[in-house]
């Protein structure tokens, strides 16, 4: 019974943090606000998580805050070429970010303030990006452009992050529609074409 109560209370704190973040934004997040939202004593945050940093770490580790490589690569079939692997990753990233407003809220805050919650997300993102790279490496390591493909993929991910965040508040960026599904399909297709050009067999 005690362990079940502990698990339930921990989840209430996680849910409280999530609700605050989605409803009121990162500025509203604090230990007192989280405790009120969870309807629990804030002292339990220290007992169960070791403090706010531990709560933040547990929160961002959940799969609905940042994608897991296995989810990003999941599909009915296995891609048969490097460009198809890249296409799956690009479309997966776009789909994830556009359906997770709480993640976009954190990404939007990163350039403004480097706080514990943002740092926790950064650590998870770095870890899972490294895991994704390890899964993809066998499909690219023999390619003559492997290093360039890796760097280009990082820049593509950065573009997706930035445009998805900007799409929270504006409709267009330059000539790109960053609000509608149709606009994002165009963005995906363009990014895929750019990166796929690097995977084409070298000319003899």
Q: How many angstroms does the end-to-end distance come to?
A: 70 Å
Shape annotation: globular
Low confidence ranges: none
What is the averaged pLDDT score? 89
Number of strands: 2
Give the domain tally. 2
Mind sketching the topology for me?
Layout: H1 2-24, H2 31-38, H3 43-49, H4 52-60, H5 69-72, H6 82-98, H7 101-109, H8 116-140, H9 146-166, E1 172-173, E2 176-177, H10 181-199
Helix pairs in contact: 1-2, 1-3, 1-4, 3-4, 4-8, 6-9, 6-10, 7-9, 9-10
Briefly, what is this?
The chain folds into 2 domains: 2-60, Arc Repressor Mutant, subunit A; 69-199. Helix content is 70%, strand content 2%.
Tell me about this structure.
The chain is built from ten helices and two strands, in the order αααααααααββα. It has 204 residues and is mainly alpha-helical. The protein has two domains: 2-60, Homeodomain-like (Arc Repressor Mutant, subunit A, Orthogonal Bundle), CATH 1.10.10.60; 69-199. A two-stranded antiparallel sheet has the order 1-2. α1 crosses α3 (43-49) and α1 (2-24) packs across α4. The longest helix has 25 residues, at 116-140. The radius of gyration is 20 Å and the shape is globular. The protein starts with a helix and ends in a 5-residue tail after the last helix. The model has no long low-confidence stretch (mean pLDDT 89).
């Amino acid at each position: 019974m005690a362990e079940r109560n502990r698990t339930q209370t921990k989840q209430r704190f996680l849910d409280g943090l999530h609700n605050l973040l989605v409803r009121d934004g990162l500025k509203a997040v604090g230990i007192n606000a989280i405790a009120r939202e969870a309807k629990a004593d804030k002292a339990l945050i220290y007992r169960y998580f070791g403090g706010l940093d531990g709560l933040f770490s547990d929160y961002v580790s959940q799969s609905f805050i940042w994608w897991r490589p296995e989810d990003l690569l999941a599909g009915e079939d296995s891609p048969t070429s490097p460009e198809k692997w890249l296409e799956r990753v690009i479309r997966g990233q776009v789909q994830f970010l556009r359906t997770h407003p709480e993640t976009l809220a954190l990404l939007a805050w990163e350039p403004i303030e480097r706080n514990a919650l943002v740092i926790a997300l950064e650590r998870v993102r770095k870890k899972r990006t490294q895991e994704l790279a390890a899964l993809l490496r066998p499909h690219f390591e023999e390619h003559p452009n492997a290093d360039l493909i890796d760097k280009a993929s990082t820049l593509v991910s950065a573009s997706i992050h930035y445009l998805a965040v900007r799409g929270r508040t504006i409709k267009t960026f330059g000539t790109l529609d960053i609000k509608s599904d149709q606009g994002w399909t165009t963005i995906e297709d363009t990014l895929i074409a750019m990166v796929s050009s690097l995977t084409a067999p070298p000319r003899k």
